[in-house]
Amino acid sequence: MRKIRGFYVFLWFVFIVISLYAFSFFSGSKHIPSNLGPFHLYALMITMGAVFAYIAALLLGPTKGIDEDLIDRFALVSIPLGLVGARLGFVLQNAEYFQNHPLEVIGITPNGFGLSGLSIHGTIVAGVLALILFYGWVGLKTLDLGDLGASILLIGQAFGRFGNFFNQELYGYPTSLPWKMFIDPAHRLPNYYEQAFYHPTFFYEGVLCLIGATILAYRFLHKRKFKGQLIFEYLIIYSAIRFVVEFFRIEPPSLWGLHTAQILSLVLIVVCSILYALTLKFGRKLYVVEDRQIP
Question: What confidence tens digit (pLDDT) does each residue in 67-82 have?
Fold first, then answer.
């Protein structure tokens, strides 16, 4: 447990250091970099989040009988599927643009190769597909893997949001708050060219995701009452985070003054809460079948 606590303290330390670095650009006195040498900072942040999530899995998994070999097997399936799902989700959300720029789906742009734009909902769908594929392999142990994956996914999201900062994208409405973030004119949305400072929604979501990841790690270790519990809790927590952050983000409302992502988040919160309550009451009968032997 000491290693796990130390690792999460380290995660918070790294997050704070990167945040302070990002804050140094908020005044607009210097240009926000998009590359570090030959490396795209968006990709580096995504990779950093994935590595930290993997390390967390190796630390948390053995406490519930999930060995490193099984984690590695699941990672080999889920990570590629997750990346493909995240990209396809983003492409579907921006279908009109990609119909006119089909090569950009795979990152071929007029300025060379550059792949950016991922959807967490696409990642979630791909993760469910990976669990379904694994069920035929390891049986109900799949739900343990699902709980483990759910408890670490917010780590990747927390650090991945810094990629949005370096790309100067997905920022919020204009603001004059002390922590306002300067956006270069080239990255400002139509109708906002005259506005220089915006809500840093990447940070709002990032810090809430890391708080959520810390809570889920604790619940995975100490508060798990049934297999699959953390999957529900992840979906509820992230949906609540997304619902709140979307109030600050520049998006056209689609229904009842809410963004599409907020409506989806509300649906997930309601459905997962009902299933969570039903499983707490009746679900233990679902787990009488023994896990299959792992080949």
Answer: 888 888 877 777 777 7
